[in-house]
TrEMBL record:
NCBIfam families: PRK11054.1. It holds the Pfam family Helicase_IV_N. PROSITE patterns: UVRD_HELICASE_ATP_BIND. This is DNA helicase IV. It comes from the Bacteria. The keyword Membrane does not apply. GO terms for cellular component: cytosol. GO terms for molecular function: 3'-5' DNA helicase activity; ATP binding; DNA binding; hydrolase activity. It comes from Escherichia coli. Residues 226-417 form the UvrD-like helicase ATP-binding domain. The gene is helD_2. ATP binds at A247, G248, A249, G250, S251, G252, K253, T254. Keywords: ATP-binding, Helicase, Hydrolase, Nucleotide-binding.
Length: 417
C-alpha cells in the first residue's frame, strides 16, 4: 500500500489519495476533507468543525461529536458566506439542519463544489434505480387493478400499503423524486393513489365505464327489446360486489337484471351456472326466465323465488323435502281461512264478538247488522276482499290469519296495525 498527501490552498482543506495494490488490481481511494481554521473553530464554538466526503455520504465531526449523513437522507446542501468565514448547511428530513462553521471561504467553496458534484452524480445513479422501482410498482398496481375491468374497494384495500413499502426501499428520499425526469411521472401517479385512493378508484372506474359503453354499444342496443338508456347501461357495467338500484315500477329494473346476466356472459366474468336471479313472486321469476331465454338464448340461467331457492338448498342437503303451505302464495286461501277463524272466534266468545263490533263501528265507521253480524255475507266479503280495508298490510293479514290462536280483540287489532 502506498499513499501521498496533497495540501490545497492553505491549511483548512486537504485531499488524501490512497493507492492499494491487491490481487493484481489497483484500487484508488480519494478522501476530501474540510476543516475549520483554528481561529474559526475557537470563535464558532460549534460541535462540528470538520467534514469528510465519503463514497455515499458525508461525515461531520468535532472533538466530542460525530454525525454521519448518508446521501439517501440528504435533501439539499447550501454554501453560505459569513462576515469572515464560510458555512456549509446540510438539510435533512423533518426540517433538520446540520451546519459546519468557521471554514476559510475559498476552501469552503471548493469543498462544496466537489461535494455537490459527487452528491448529484450519486443521485443520478440512484434515480435510475428509484425509477425502476416506481415503474415496477405501477406495473403491479396495473396488474392488480386492470385497466380493462372494474376496480372494487376490496381490490384497492392493500394498494397504499404496497406503495409505502416500495417507497421505504428507495435509495432516494421521496422529497427529491420530483427533481428527476425519470422519476417524476411515476412518482406523481403513486402519489395519487396515496393521497386519495377513493378518487383514484372512481376516476379509474369512470374511464373504464366510458370505454365499455363505447366498445359494447351494440350489446346495449340489442340485449333487450328496447335499447338500454345510459343510466341502465352504467348499472350493468358497474362491477361492485353489491349494487342497489332504486327505480319506480316499469322503469326497466328487470331489463337491467337480464342485461347484467348477459354482460357477465359476454365478458367471460361468469358462467351460466354461476348466475342466479331472484324474485319475490313466482310470476316475476317466470317472467325473468322467459326474458333470459328470449334475449340471451340460454336455459342454463335460472330465476327463482326466495322460497324456491331455500327449498332447492334444503333438497341438496337432505332427503326430506319440506312442504310449504299454499297459504304462502294463495291470497284467496288466506282470506278464506281468516273469515272462517273470525266467525268461529266471534260465535264462541262473546268478548270477541263485542270487541269486533265495537272496533268495526267506532274505529272503521262501518255499518254492522244486529245479532250474529259475523254470519252476514256482505260483511264477510268486505272483510275478505282486501286486508287493507281493515287498515292492515298484507304482512299483517298473513300474521293474523296464520295463527290458530288469533285473538283479534279491539286492543289486539290496534297492535297489528
Amino acid at each position: 500500500m502506498g499513499g501521498n498527501c496533497n495540501v490545497f490552498l492553505g491549511w483548512s482543506t486537504f485531499s488524501l489519495t490512497v493507492t492499494l495494490i491487491r490481487n493484481n488490481f489497483v484500487w484508488i481511494y480519494r478522501v476530501m476533507e474540510l476543516k475549520a481554521t483554528t481561529l474559526g473553530k475557537r470563535l464558532a464554538q460549534h460541535p462540528y468543525d470538520r467534514a469528510v466526503i465519503l463514497n455515499a455520504g458525508i461525515k461531520v465531526s468535532g472533538d466530542r461529536h460525530e454525525y454521519l449523513i448518508p446521501f439517501n437522507q440528504l435533501l439539499a446542501i447550501h454554501c453560505k458566506r459569513g462576515l469572515v468565514w464560510g458555512e456549509l448547511e446540510f438539510v435533512l428530513p423533518d426540517e433538520k439542519v446540520v451546519r459546519l462553521h468557521g471554514t476559510e471561504w475559498g476552501e469552503t467553496q471548493r469543498f462544496y463544489h466537489h461535494l455537490d458534484a459527487h452528491w448529484r452524480r450519486w443521485s443520478g445513479e440512484m434515480s435510475e434505480i428509484a425509477s425502476g422501482v416506481l415503474r415496477q410498482q405501477l406495473d403491479l398496481i396495473a396488474t392488480r387493478t386492470g385497466e380493462n375491468k372494474w376496480l372494487t374497494r376490496e381490490q384497492t384495500s392493500g394498494v397504499q400499503q404496497q406503495i409505502r413499502q416500495a417507497l421505504s426501499a428507495l435509495p432516494l428520499p421521496v422529497n427529491r423524486l420530483e427533481e428527476f425526469d425519470n422519476c417524476r411521472e411515476a412518482w406523481r401517479k403513486c402519489q395519487a393513489w396515496l393521497k386519495d385512493i377513493e378518487s383514484a378508484r372512481l376516476q379509474h372506474n369512470q374511464a373504464y365505464t366510458e370505454a365499455m359503453l363505447t366498445e359494447y354499444a351494440d350489446f346495449f342496443r340489442q340485449v333487450e327489446s328496447s335499447p338500454l338508456n345510459p343510466a341502465q347501461a352504467r348499472a350493468v357495467v358497474n362491477g361492485e360486489h353489491s349494487l342497489l338500484v332504486l327505480a319506480g315500477a316499469g322503469s326497466g329494473k328487470t331489463s337491467v337484471l337480464v342485461a347484467r346476466a348477459g354482460w357477465l356472459l359476454a365478458r367471460g366474468e361468469a358462467s351460466p351456472e354461476q348466475i342466479l336471479l331472484l324474485a319475490f313472486g313466482r310470476k316475476a321469476a317466470e317472467e325473468m326466465d322467459e326474458r333470459i331465454r328470449e334475449r340471451l338464448h340460454t336455459e342454463d340461467i335460472t330465476a327463482r323465488t326466495f322460497h324456491a331457492l331455500a327449498l332447492h338448498i334444503i333438497q341438496q342437503g337432505s332427503k326430506k323435502v319440506p312442504i310449504v303451505s299454499k297459504l304462502e302464495n294463495d291470497t284467496a286461501a288466506r282470506h278464506e281461512l281468516f273469515i272462517a277463524e273470525w266467525r268461529k272466534q266471534c260465535s264462541e266468545k262473546k268478548a270477541q264478538a263485542k270487541g269486533w263490533r265495537q272496533w268495526l263501528t267506532e274505529e272503521m265507521q262501518w255499518s254492522v247488522p244486529e245479532g250474529n253480524f259475523w254470519d252476514d255475507e256482505k260483511l264477510q266479503r268486505r272483510l275478505g276482499l282486501s286486508p287493507r280495508s281493515l287498515g292492515k298490510s298484507d304482512a299483517d293479514a298473513r300474521w293474523c290469519t296464520g295463527r290458530n290462536d288469533c285473538q283479534c280483540t279491539r286492543r289486539d287489532s290496534r297492535s297489528v296495525q
